[in-house]
Write a structure and sequence with these properties.
By secondary structure, the protein is an all-alpha fold. The longest helix has 23 residues. The protein is globular.
Length: about 70
């Protein structure tokens, strides 16, 4: 159980770093008032990291192709 949460925290940290980087280079697709990545999403990423990993890789690949 602890390992699962630690992996989720590390994954959430990496997602947070990626989102922060995208916001700094102005490639974040949402205006700040409509940003869907809020505290509830952060908690869900930590708890449901396997699903979050799949979504992150899909979004990254889709954005990389553009």
């Amino acid at each position: 159980m602890i390992t699962y949460l630690v992996i989720g925290i590390v994954f959430g940290f990496l997602v947070e770093l990626s989102a922060d980087h995208l916001k700094r280079i102005k490639s974040w697709p949402f205006p700040p008032s409509e940003d869907p990545y809020n505290m509830i999403m952060r908690i869900l990423v930590v708890l449901l990291w396997p699903i979050g990993t799949i979504i992150f890789i899909h979004g990254f690949a889709k954005g990389y192709r553009k």
